[in-house]
Here is the input.
Amino acid sequence: MKRVLMAALVVVMVGVVGGMAFASGKAEDGTVTIRLGHIRDTAHPTHLGALRFAELVEQESGGRITVKVFPNSQLGNIQEMFTQLQTGDLDMVYGGINTLAFIDGGEAFEITAIPFLYRDYEHMRAALTADFFAPVIRAAEKNTGVKVVNITGDTAPRGLSANRAIREPADFKGLKIRTAASEVVLRVMERLGAVPQQIAFGDLYVALSTGVVDAQENGAITVANMSFYEVQDYYMRTDYIRDIETFYASTGMWDGLSEADRQVIIDASEEAGELVTTLTEQQLAQAYETLRKNMTVIEEPELNLPAIRARLEGVFEDWDGVKWPAGMLDQIRNLD
Here is the structure.
């Protein structure tokens, strides 16, 4: 009986070890296959950056490491892919830094989606890679089991289109605005005196054209692609919520790599992120060209962003020291 049990145990252990080797994608000959997923379509800068990442990793590893890219949510939505990272069923994800707040243990990353906090891509990336932010990343990695490899690659920020001009905080008063069902957005709009409403995105064009709502807060590329300029007269370049695409990894996969191979991945991700930023800038330039032909675009200094930020002081102070370390909002605001 003991021999039978021992034989069964050996079979189970072999299966577990074999499964771990398969999940990591590491073959007996030392070659490594990395499966990377993202939610964007194949024309999106994120996908083109992921393909460049794969090309560079294979090139710099001498062909030992192959990256297979799965776009367009083929492996699930972002939360589902994070779960796969945690279980070791997926090796890497390329997605927004905001999204780490979607999973248990990543709540501190809600600070990455605070409206009007980040002045531009450079300011946001400098803040998230600063020494004062490093403990937040380390804590999230420990609590989530997801490795933050590199925060790199700009995304199109959110703005504001409306049927009236918005230049000052007072101009928001009574504005019926379709927003995301997000507490951070609702807090901001309510403080400014707007009236936030939730409407399905597919119904938004009609809602804008019929006056059900006066405004919406998607960015310039969405406004251009969805032809919202046909039913809105003004676009305010608030850039009020930003995100940065981020390379995430399974800790099991990452821990199994040599230091040299980790550096290959970091270097490749940096160059890929630079490509994503460049392509995003190009898409935004094209979108603004379309908008300026069809509506009035209001931006700084006509758009008084300092006054809007001043009006919002204190809105998120109750989260400071609760969701993220105390004083971090001011550290980010004051970062040069």
Remarks:
- DSSP finds twelve helices and eleven strands in the chain.
- Residues 1-23 have pLDDT under 50 and may be disordered.
- The longest helix spans residues 259-294.
